[in-house]
Known about the structure:
magnesium ion binding, nucleotide-binding, kinase, 7-stranded mixed β-sheet, 13 strands, magnesium, 6-stranded mixed β-sheet
Amino acid sequence: MGSKSVPLTSLVKTSGCAAKIGPGVLHSVLGKLPKFSDPRLLVGFDTSDDACVYQISDQLVAIQTVDFFPPMVDDPYAFGQIAAANALSDIYAMGAEPATALNLICFPSCLDIEVLHQILEGGYAKVKEAEAVIAGGHTISDPTPKYGLAVTGFTHPDHVRTNAGAIAGDVLILTKPIGVGILNTAAKAGLLSDGEQKQIIDIMSTLNKYAKRCADGLTVHACTDVTGFSLTGHAIEMAQASGKSIQIDTGAVPILSQALDYAAIGIIPEGMYNNLDYLQDKFTLGTALPQNLQDVLLDPQTSGGLLLAMPKADADLFLKRMEDHNSWSRIIGEVTDKKEKPLIYF
């Protein structure tokens, strides 16, 4: 077999955002680190937000993030697109537009150099779509391929969106379906059809640029993106950071039906179990939900959608605007005053 034909996913144990360190381990480490204090640091990692916000002037803040991971698909160009879209997403979640990006690449010597070119080409295509520029980067030789970006964006301080401002009465919108982590696991086992594979690549490579821009000019009290911590984890972070609780109607959540089917036969990424271990005491199930549905709600997403807390009137206008971009966006729940648990499913 020629080196170019080596399937990328055969070189990794875990893929995409499912490869992230478990939230319990990560929080235990971060909790022991000293906290930086700087009046210009408007948002750090205290509320588990998507990126840092650093004030440059009264009229300008810089928003910075970094994200990279191993491949979840075998096509190098598609992998580059997905990894770039995922890294750019944090900037959109914070209410900004990306400006500059730096490549982060780990590449094994067993692969043809053309594979590296295709990964970078996919990343470049998404950065161009984002109307940003790639201005360099860093590469190392590594047996496990990985790719992503360090991204900087800019906005006015009044336009920053965080996960900490949700208020009681807001409705909650999700802009992409969940279940991608389970389907990536099924793909690695060779279980997905070409059509299923194309569908999840299209979802993961869709920029959150369009959702961010559809929310511009509307009241958005809180925003985050749904990635490796799952819908459950990111909703809990928003509730805790806001000092509120969130109720989610499981029947309203956009879910890839194939993910429910594969979850029912035990096709589950390791990241789901990490999420469950850390989150199981932080949410309640208002009704008895099938096990496969519970698994999908904890499924680690790669390049997932935005989760926005908005007044109902603004949410309706947002959904109308989003009709030109995707058919996935919908209202899935609401924000309430603080209850016994941060998150309630019903």
